[in-house]
Amino acid sequence: MITAGYRLAKANAPFCKNKWRNPGWVLHSYQQYPDRDTARAAFDFPLPVAIAALVEGGPADQAGLRTGESFSDLPGGIWWGADPVRHKPSFALVDIVNIRVNALFDGGQAVGLLVRGKPGEAERRVTIEPPAICASYFIISSNGQDDAGADGQYVRVSAALAQYTPDADEFAAIVAHELAHNILEHRKRLDAMNVQRGIGRMFGKSKKAFLQTEMEADQLSVWLMVNAGYDPAAAVRFWQRRGPDKDKGLFSDGTHMGWRDRIKILQAEIEHIQTLNQNRLPHEPPLLAKM
Amino acid sequence: MLRFALLFTALFMAFSPARAQAAPKEADIEAYRALVALDQG
Fold it and tell me: Which of A111, A131, A198, A243 gets the most CB atoms within 10 Å of its CB?
């Protein structure tokens, strides 16, 4: 997840209005898992939040950080006992650490972090200076659903959907679609329009607004993929398999286009991209030129 | 005496650490590790 997300967010940084300095890691906490004892048995957690994954060759990897390590002196301190929804899976602590770390990087300077590893290992200080890339966190959820989503800050793909994709390009197609929602600030736009998110989303202006944002995310997604070196035709392949598998027909809530129409939109964008000089990457996506 | 023995056994079963906290299963541990492998991908 972080490999695909980081690659897409970095390659398209020149066109993103909102950027974060991203260290290229995914954090996790035993609190986010359905069974915390199993999570503690599966992973090293020197503190309740630790590094789950690193982008190979990314800023954190180059700084010498390793999976399983934690940060012990974040500004403002962290009350590690914070557990607002005890006994239910919660990303609350990961969210707090992400916010604290983002605030550190906001200064634009190299940042020193005190790192704690396995029991018995001495704490050490590492210096990290990540580049600013398109703003988003990237996470895999274990919610039992077969879906993906974007809320303006997080790009989330469920484990079931990730396992459905046969290769890195199809997986990147899902991540690119959700990242496109965040880059285009769809959550903010839908909130400003006061759209209905319950059953009301299936009617009137709410339905129209959701359809518009989904179409835009499809359009932008293939540009993001090409700029990051992924095969954009993988988005088409994904829907050719997924569409017939999941077509709800009349039972669809109507907030997403049918899979055949989505393929037409993706193909039109790919044909547009193919008219451009492929030696001059990255291509500026038309939707982002307007922002 | 029998009643006391039964009560003692019931209390022991109820508060036994082994009963209160079963050890995580290896299959569940591997499933969580597979989940984190997706974080990397």
Answer: A111
